[in-house]
């Protein structure tokens, strides 16, 4: 198997952005022009996929059999970022996993908005992740503004900033549209 | 400057005044404890132990509500649980974790579910090519073979069914015991009192590091590399091996001229985490001049190590070590591992040049498969 093309995700670990058998990856472009935009997406990623409190991880790991469902902000051209949804599944559990993640995306899109409790919880976890997760640099490794700017404390930032549904609805819908197009070939290593 | 210290028997402590702290619990329940005929049991047990208790994701929901994050990992010598989060919630988080670890009831379908999750974890972490993954070739097990004969993660994961669903509870009862765990906390003692943490964890008596299983070490390489055996459990011996490896890596870089040689400790490159015997390896670029490298290694083995060279290596490794334990979770985990092997302390200081020379003289070049 050729070496996959990888990029650093927001936690500093490599993430494959190229579709491979049994590895789902959907991406969409998002506007990222300021530190606020970076923090906003980091918080939204935490809110939607950052733990067992989030719909995508609940669908994948609590109710399903996925190890992780990643939702990450990656750098793109100046002023733009890439929002990437990825997960790896065996062929055996792939149909169930796809349907489960799809339902979670449906739930996110159908919800009126992120509640204050969900927003605060996401900010709390993001703060912990920024402070303590392994190999997560306080500054990004991308060396590209605004990603490598020193970010404000997520908790105080989230207290004065509300998530804007207009910001995330379209990108999440775009990720959703890529779901049925996923192909399932032979998984590696079998 | 703060130092890792043993605040109470079996309780490592690192003073930390940031808003976020961490604690780690390390149990002697790694691959070496699972037995040659049960590969995968330790990792499977980790998943079942950490599996959510119910549809409300207990205990993860409680942790996350307070901003805490939970990680668990199984290695050759141990199984470790790490919780990081706001310092004012750490004690409560420890209580929640203790309650979770001591109640082994899990949902009826948890075993099958976790078996498939492990399968997907292996596919993800090995880039969907698990059979080509390097570390699976050098997993030792007591009394058993290495590699394909005892592959503690990949083979059982790819086997599909939850092969250990009846065995994990007995393994947990025997090996994941609070009274035998090493604990480590990264926190401000004014916010998290060591005696309170002791009270939550209860009295503990760590296994004697001299009594830990000594696995057969017969690493099989799949690439060209230089191997330095680490035959001592203590911090001085393991530090000396890393210093010697750094000096060997410098020779490799000098011979090659371009590539900087990587040093790798044990199976997972987690410094001071493994009990002896283990190995430190130095990568060798495929296009290196092996003849020249052999000569440089021979000189290194035959001559005494210059104090300036040792200081050079010590300075760089100390910086790398500081970077490795910067985050509270990594610091807590490393501390717990060191404590469990009886090697808690300050690495690389002081250093015994005789130990470094002994390690350097044992360096051996192995050809790839």
Task: Give a topology summary.
The complex is a heterodimer of chains A (190) and B (369).
Chain A: E1 6-8, E2 14-16, E3 23-32, H1 35-49, H2 55-62, E4 70-75, E5 79-88, H3 94-110, H4 116-132, H5 154-160, H6 165-178
Antiparallel strand pairs in A: 1-2, 3-5, 4-5
Helix pairs in contact in A: 1-4, 2-3, 3-6, 4-5
Chain B: E1 5-8, E2 11-15, E3 20-27, H1 31-34, H2 41-50, H3 60-65, E4 69-74, E5 79-86, H4 90-102, H5 110-125, H6 154-159, H7 168-175, E6 182-187, H8 194-201, E7 225-230, H9 235-256, E8 263-265, E9 278-283, H10 290-302, H11 307-324, H12 328-340, H13 353-361, E10 364-366
Structure overview:
The complex is a heterodimer of chains A (190) and B (369). Chain A is an alpha+beta fold and 190 residues long. Chain A has one domain (6-181): Cytochrome Bc1 Complex, Chain A, domain 1 (2-Layer Sandwich). Chain A is built from six helices and five strands, in the order E-E-E-H-H-E-E-H-H-H-H. Chain A has a three-stranded antiparallel β-sheet with strand order 3-5-4, with helices on one face. In chain A, a hairpin with a 5-residue loop joins strand 1 (6-8) and strand 2 (14-16). In chain A, helix 2 (55-62) packs antiparallel against helix 3 (94-110). Chain B folds into two domains: 5-211, Cytochrome Bc1 Complex, Chain A, domain 1, CATH 3.30.830; 225-366, Metalloenzyme, LuxS/M16 peptidase-like (Cytochrome Bc1 Complex, Chain A, domain 1, 2-Layer Sandwich), CATH 3.30.830.10. Chain B has 13 helices and ten strands. In chain B, the strands form two sheets. Chain B has a six-stranded mixed β-sheet, with helices on both faces. In chain B, helix 4 (90-102) packs parallel to helix 8 (194-201). Chain B is globular and about 60 Å long. The model of chain B is unreliable at 141-148 (pLDDT under 50).
